[in-house]
């Protein structure tokens, strides 16, 4: 079966620097794959390549089996992308943001649908008519996830999704991502948080210096062992 996301021997050069070097992985439908790496490892660049903002200098990336460079619009249409700082408007309320971005996506929705999505991400009802500039980061993320739900994109790309969240918000966020994956969403997240990656992911890939140097999976429905991944991460960073 075609994987929603696939990187095939992906190499990327940015301003003369080799940023990714022969990276290959697939993410299956309903799977959460976390790409773990230190600063500058190439994590964000990988996401930008799936979105067609950066072009591979070698190999290719595929979304639903189609080369992204061949059809950028199809790839972007299938993907909801949460950058580290959610890209919604601070001067608009949650309802206004959702209305605006859904109109842009050609998928307008009524108030009942907006509320259903905001209920699903547990954004308090009283907050929905407030401007986003008064929101916590967790609340902005919930709004961004609600938008992804309403756009009905089958794929979620998350860049450092829990940085700046408090521990309760992190747990809530992980539960939400797991519930979405349980419903068939395919999730690729990039992070330098070993603990978070092991908590939420079905599989963790270790990216270092633009190369995928390790991979960890959870056996029998258990969580990935944080100690093992942490040791590998620390060792690789030192290497
Ligand atoms: N706009 C840019 N132009 C040129 N090179 C860039 C640009 N942005 C990042 N790079 C380089 O690409 C490499 C990978 O950066 P990238 O942002 O993908 O790493 P990352 O793993 O996401 O790091 P971080 O955890 O710090 O966000 C780095 O060496 C970085 O200097």
Automatic annotation (TrEMBL):
<dbReference type="InterPro" id="IPR003593">
    <property type="entry name" value="AAA+_ATPase"/>
</dbReference>
<dbReference type="InterPro" id="IPR051782">
    <property type="entry name" value="ABC_Transporter_VariousFunc"/>
</dbReference>
<feature type="domain" description="ABC transporter">
    <location>
        <begin position="5"/>
        <end position="234"/>
    </location>
</feature>
<keyword id="KW-0813">Transport</keyword>
<keyword id="KW-0067">ATP-binding</keyword>
<dbReference type="GO" id="GO:0005524">
    <property type="term" value="F:ATP binding"/>
</dbReference>
<keyword id="KW-0547">Nucleotide-binding</keyword>
<protein>
    <submittedName>
        <fullName>ABC transporter ATP-binding protein</fullName>
    </submittedName>
</protein>
<dbReference type="InterPro" id="IPR003439">
    <property type="entry name" value="ABC_transporter-like_ATP-bd"/>
</dbReference>
<dbReference type="Pfam" id="PF00005">
    <property type="entry name" value="ABC_tran"/>
</dbReference>
């Amino acid at each position: 079966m075609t994987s929603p996301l696939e990187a095939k021997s992906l190499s990327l050069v940015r301003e003369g620097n080799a940023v990714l070097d022969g990276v290959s992985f697939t993410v299956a439908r309903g799977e959460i794959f976390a790409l773990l790496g230190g600063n500058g490892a190439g994590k964000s660049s990988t996401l930008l390549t799936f979105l067609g903002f950066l072009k591979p200098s070698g190999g290719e990336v595929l979304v639903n089996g189609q080369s992204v460079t061949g059809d950028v619009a199809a790839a972007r249409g299938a993907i909801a992308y949460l950058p580290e700082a959610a890209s919604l408007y601070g001067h608009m309320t949650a309802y206004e943001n959702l209305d605006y971005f859904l109109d842009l996506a050609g998928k307008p929705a009524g108030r009942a649908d907006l509320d259903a999505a905001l209920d699903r991400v547990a954004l308090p009802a009283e907050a929905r008519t407030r401007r986003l500039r008064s929101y916590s980061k967790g609340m902005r993320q919930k709004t961004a996830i609600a938008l992804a739900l309403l756009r009905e994109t089958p794929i979620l790309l998350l860049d450092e999704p829990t940085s700046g969240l408090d521990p309760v918000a992190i747990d809530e966020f992980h539960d939400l991502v797991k519930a979405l994956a349980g419903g068939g969403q395919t999730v690729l997240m990039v992070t330098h948080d070993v603990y978070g990656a092991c908590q939420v992911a079905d599989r963790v890939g270790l990216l270092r210096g633009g190369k995928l140097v390790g991979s960890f999976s959870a056996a029998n429905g258990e969580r990935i062992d944080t100690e093992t991944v942490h040791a590998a991460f620390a060792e690789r960073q030192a290497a």
